[in-house]
Amino acid sequence: MTVKFAYGNTHSMVENPKKARSNKSEVNKHRWVMFVALNTDKDQTAKFVKSVTYHLHPTFKPSVIKVTEAPFLLSRIGWGYFDVEMEIEFKEWTGLKK
Predict the structure, then answer these.
(1) Dist CA 24 CA 18 (whole Å)
(2) Where does 1-98 have alpha helices with state H?
(3) pTM, whole model, 2 decimals?
(4) Cα separations (Å) of 38 from 32, 35, 46, 72?
(5) CA 87 to CA 40: how far, in whole Å?
(6) How far apart are CA 46 and CA 3, in angstroms?
(7) Is the distance from CB of 85 to CB of 53 less than 8 angstroms?
(8) How far apart are CA 75 and CA 73, in angstroms?
């Protein structure tokens, strides 16, 4: 069986951004939505994926967020750019590891 999946994020600018709590000299002007999708189908994603854990920049509180429902989206607003690590936990029947 071949299963294609995509992961990544979308970005948009925030209208009327507010000052950042983590750094008062910055403005939270960026909105990201992180995602994981199998075959671009929410039901297929839920069939294979149990959870996705996102590791955000340490200035986010909390900075580690586990999402347990498809489509495993996580949306946040912030003032800068950073790398996001993610751990995908597959359903046990797949035999796939994190």
Answers:
(1) 10
(2) 42-48
(3) 0.86
(4) 20, 10, 9, 11
(5) 19
(6) 13
(7) no
(8) 7
